[in-house]
Amino acid sequence: MNHYAAPLRDIRFALFDVLDVESLYARLGLDAAQRDVLDAVLDEGARFTETVLAPLYQSGDAEGCHFDPDTGAVTAPKGFKRAYEQYVDAGWAGITAPEAYGGQGLPDSLGIALKEMIDAANLSWGNYPLLSHGATEALRHHGEDWQREVFLRPIVEGRWTGTMCLTEPHCGSDLGLLRTRAEPQPDGSYAITGTKIFITGGEHDFTDNIVHLVLARLPDAPAGTKGISLFIVPKMKVAKDGSVGERNAVRCGSIEHKMGIHASATCVMNFDGARGWLIGQPNKGLNAMFTMMNTARLAVGVQGLGLIDRAFQNALRYARERLQMRALSGAKFPDLPADPIIVHPDVRRMLLTCKALGEGGRLLAYHAGTLVDVIEHGTDADERRRADELLSFLTPIVKACLTEWSVECTYHALQVFGGHGYVREWGMEQLARDARITTIYEGTTGIQALDLLGRKILQQQGAGMRQFLSMIEGFCREQQHNPALAEFILPLAEKAREWGELTLHIGKRASADADEIGAAAVDYLFYSGYVALAYWWARAVAGAEAGNAGDAFKLAKRETARFYFQRILPRTLAHAAAIRAGKDSLLGIPAEAFDA
C-alpha cells in the first residue's frame, strides 16, 4: 500500500530552472547532455524505478536476504536479481562512467537525479550497485592501466559489482586499528587475510564476480593510518590478462539481521589468504579509499533525500483522503462526514517540514553534483580547484543533514498516518527503519561534523565555506531590490553574517582547547545545513518567479519558503546557543560517574 511516483516536475525545476545545468553542460563541453537526452533519461528512469523497483520495496523487506552457511552464498529477495538484469540491460550501470570504459559519460548531476529515484523506489536494492560507482572512481583515479582495463570495464558494464571493505570487528571509524594483513607473493600479487564486517553487497546472486576493495597492512607497514594500503580482491581470481580463474579465498561468513534495509545484504567477509592486487602506492591506501568514500558519502545523502520524498508523497496522499474531525475554524468540506486531516495545522506542520527539507535538500544535493561535473570535465585548473574546495566543504553537510532530516521526516510522515503508520502493510514504518541506518554508515553524523569543523573549516581555513558565503552575499546583493524576495534576503544575509561570526568564535576557543571542536561540531554542522537550505529556498523562489511555471507552482514554492524561514530556520538559534555554551557542561561529569 506504499507507493512511489518520481517527482519529475521538481527534479526538472531543480536542474533546469534553478541550477541551469544546460548552460553548465554546454560550457563544460558535455555535448551528449542535450535537453532531449536529459529528458529521455529522466522519463525512463522514472518508468524503471516506478514499475520495476518500487513494487519490490515492501516484499523485499518482508522476505529479506537468504544465507547458506554451508556455501557462504547469499540470495537476494524474489525479483531483485531480475531487476538488476533489467538495470544492466538498459545501460543504467554506466550512465555517468567514462565512455573509454564502456560508460555513457553523462553528467554526475544527472546521475544524482537518477539515484534519488532509485533510492526512493527501493533503498535496499539501490545498495547493490551503490558501491560499484565508488569502486569505479577509485580505479579510475588510482589504478594501473591493466587494472582499469581488467576490473573497471566489467564493473561499468554491470557484469561485476564492487564493494568497499574497511570496518573490522574491533575497528570502526578508527581505521588506524585495522589488522587485515597483505603478504607479498612471487607473482606480484598479495595474499590478503583478515575479517571485515558490515560489508554492503559483499555477497549476492546478481553477478558472477564481485570486486572487493580491501584495506590491509603490508608486513613492514608503519603503525596507524600511515600504514594502510588498498587492494583489489575479486571473488573469482582474475589474472592481469583479464582471464577469470577459480574461486578466491574470500567467503561470506554471515549476514547481519538489521533494524532496516532487510533486502540489502550486510555481510561479514572472511579473507583467508585471498589473492589480491595493490591499488595505488604502498601505505597510501587511505588516499585511494577516500576517493571511494567521498563518492559514497554523497550517495548516502541522496538516499536520505529519496526517503524524504517517498515518505512525503505517501503522507500527503493519506492526509488528503483520511477524514477525521472538523477544522477548528469550522467545516472546510461540509458535504463530507468529516474534514480530511490535511486541514489541521499540526498535520500541515509535519507535511510542510517534509516538503521544505526535501525540496530544499534536492537543490543542495544536486548542486554538489554539478561541482563533481566541474571537477571531472572543467578545462580551467583554478575553476576545478575551487569546485573541489566547495564540494569538500559541502559533502559532510549533504551526507549528515539529509540523512538526519530523513529520520525526522519519515517519522513525521508515519505520524500523519496515526496508528496506521505503525502497521506494516502501509509501509511507513519501513521507511522510518530504513532511514535510521543512513545517519550511521559511511561515517556517523558526529564523524561528518568533525570532518566539517575540524578539517574543512579549521585545518583548511574554511576555503569552501568562504566560497559558499560569497555565493550567498552575491545573491543577496543581486536580489536586494527584488520585491518578490524581500522577505527572504535580509534574514538570509543576517544568518550568513552570524555563520561567519560563530566560525571565528569556535576557532578562537579551539586554539586554546581542542575539545571545543568536538563540543561544537554537531551543532555547527546543523547550523550550516539550515543556513545552506535557506539560501537554496531563496534561490528556489527566484527560480520559480523567473520561470514559466503556473501560479499554483509559484505559490507553493513561495509558501514553502516562507514556512522554512519562519519555522525551521529559527532552529539555528538553539544551535548557536549550544555552540556558545562551550564544552564545560559536556565534560563536567567524569566518565566513571555517569551512573552516579
What descriptors fit this protein?
596 residues, alpha+beta, 7-stranded mixed beta sheet, two-stranded antiparallel ribbon, 19 helices, 11 strands, globular
Separate helix tally? 19
Distance between the termini: 48 Å
Mean pLDDT level: 96
Structural class: alpha+beta
Shape: globular
Query: How many β-strand stretches?
Result: 11
* Radius of gyration, in angstroms, nearest whole number: 24 Å
Instruction: Return the string of H and E elements.
Output: HHHHEEHHHHEEEEEEEEEHHHHHHHHHHH
Describe the model.
This protein is an alpha+beta fold. Helices cover 57% and strands 11% of the residues. It is built from 19 helices and 11 strands. The chain has helices at 8-18, 21-27, 35-53, 57-63, 80-89, 108-121, 123-142, 145-157, 285-321, 345-377, 381-416, 428-438, 445-459, 463-479, 486-512, 515-546, 551-568, 571-581, 584-587, and strands at 66-68, 73-75, 160-165, 181-184, 190-200, 209-216, 229-234, 236-238, 244-247, 250-255, 266-279. The strands form 3 sheets. Strands 3, 4, 5, 6, 7, 10 and 11 form a 7-stranded mixed sheet that branches. Strands 1-2 form a two-stranded antiparallel sheet. Strand 1 and strand 2 (73-75) form a beta hairpin. Helix 7 (123-142) runs antiparallel to helix 9 (285-321), helix 11 packs antiparallel against helix 12 (428-438) and helix 16 (515-546) runs antiparallel to helix 17 (551-568). The longest helix is centred in the middle third of the chain and has 37 residues, at 285-321. The mean pLDDT is 96.
